[in-house]
Amino acid sequence: MAEISVEQIKKLKELSGAGLTDAKKALVEADGDFDKALEAMRKKGLTKAEKRGDRETREGLVDSYIHDGRLGAIVEVNCETSFVAKTDEFKTLAHQIAMQVASMAPLYVSEEDIPEEVRAAKIKELEANFKGPENMKEKILEGQMKKAFADKVLMNQPYILDDSKTVEQFIKEAIAKTGENITVRQFKRIELGVTE
């Protein structure tokens, strides 16, 4: 068995947001392989985050980001308790989401927020331009719909500070660290000279 140092345990604890005991256990199970242990901890944390997704979020904060006085965004990010809402990690998360909104100009928080008339109009347009096998039509149109709204839905956008993950994955990692459900309730983006 590989030698596991206290520094490795502390580093894993810090990166995963788990306790010392869990960090040590993960390193032992990974036979001292730090990267393998970290990956196992992340998967475990994300699984827990999925389970927390239904819990009610009534606390949180409103944060904003202004870029060069020319464009800005204001967001409402919610969590379960005021204790978590007051932490530096949560404040940073809300600010980074405001930066995301200012930078990437999404129209909707999630796919569920796309109005039915907008969705229906897009489907109609895609069906009119459909060129492909009829037996695959439904699946192809579904993929085209997802692609058409990918950059317009905040949760589906690549996260601006790490494009290897989506905003949704970034938030799930925060859920895993805080132990609370976190949701983006609403946002507004304003750009100088541009009206909706």
Automatic annotation (TrEMBL):
Per UniProt, the keywords (alphabetical) are: Cytoplasm, Elongation factor, Protein biosynthesis
Give any Pfam family that matches. Answer: EF_TS
Q: Give the stretches traversing the membrane.
A: none
Q: What is its main location?
A: cytoplasm
The keyword Cell membrane appears for this protein: no
Name all Translation elongation factor EFTs/EF1B dimerisation domain ranges. Answer: 57-193
State the Gene Ontology terms under molecular function.
translation elongation factor activity
> Where in the cell does this protein reside?
Cytoplasm
UniProt record similarity statement: Belongs to the EF-Ts family.
PANTHER family from the entry? Answer: ELONGATION FACTOR TS (PTHR11741), ELONGATION FACTOR TS, MITOCHONDRIAL (PTHR11741:SF0)
Q: What does this protein do?
A: Associates with the EF-Tu.GDP complex and induces the exchange of GDP to GTP. It remains bound to the aminoacyl-tRNA.EF-Tu.GTP complex up to the GTP hydrolysis stage on the ribosome.
What's the protein called, per UniProt? Answer: Elongation factor Ts
Q: Which organism is it from?
A: Candidatus Nanosyncoccus alces
